[in-house]
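User: I'm new to structure prediction. If I give you an amino acid sequence, what do you actually give back? Let's try with this one:
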Amino acid sequence: MNNTFKANLLKTLANKKGNKGFTLIELLVVVIIIGVLAAIALPNLLGQVGKARESEAKSTLGAMSRAQQTAFAERGRFAGSMAELEVPVGNEKFYGIFLDAAASDVTPVAQNGFMGASGVNRNADGTVIGGDIGANANGQNGTRDYAAGITYDPLNRVFSTVVCRANNSATVAGNKYVIHTAMAVNGDNAKVIDGTVAGLAGDTGATTVDDAIATCDTTNTEEVK
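Assistant: Good question. You get back a string of structure tokens that encode the predicted 3D arrangement of the chain. For your 225 residues, that looks like this:
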């Protein structure tokens, strides 16, 4: 039996010596295939990362919109400042949130509420890095600016809300998906979004809103469903 064991062991060792590894060409082909697949998948992956980061803006603006409805029910008008709105902001990583306190010529605090989210980069302590508001931050993070509007129709007694996102039109593509200009993130703004007329006092026409229906300006933005 001992001889049989030795014979089997020698046979096994002989077979192992006959096994061959991968050649350099075979390994090179595998590396090339992996590289091609990675090159195809990477842009799509980065796009998904940007979309995930944008959920920060959408969720915050949604909360602000609901808070505006509550404020209107309590006071008979929309909140005119972040402090009055009572929605905690400032801890967002990729966005600076603001409220447009002087959005329109038609008593915006009474009938219209406008909000925005612009891409930012922050320091370790949470402060916004100078110059990294809007185009720079959006370009680095794969994000886009957002705008939100809410109106109240006193005739039909209903709210109308909309969330708009910068699109890839020629107007904004060069600015890396930017809607807002001269914003004061995490604070109040004047005329960043105009409720009735585009192009006034720093307004970029991000949102067009009348007294009854909130809509997005399809030139620069797309409505978020």
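You can read the tokens as a compact description of the fold. Here is one thing that stands out. Confidence is low (pLDDT under 50) at residues 104-110, 195-203.
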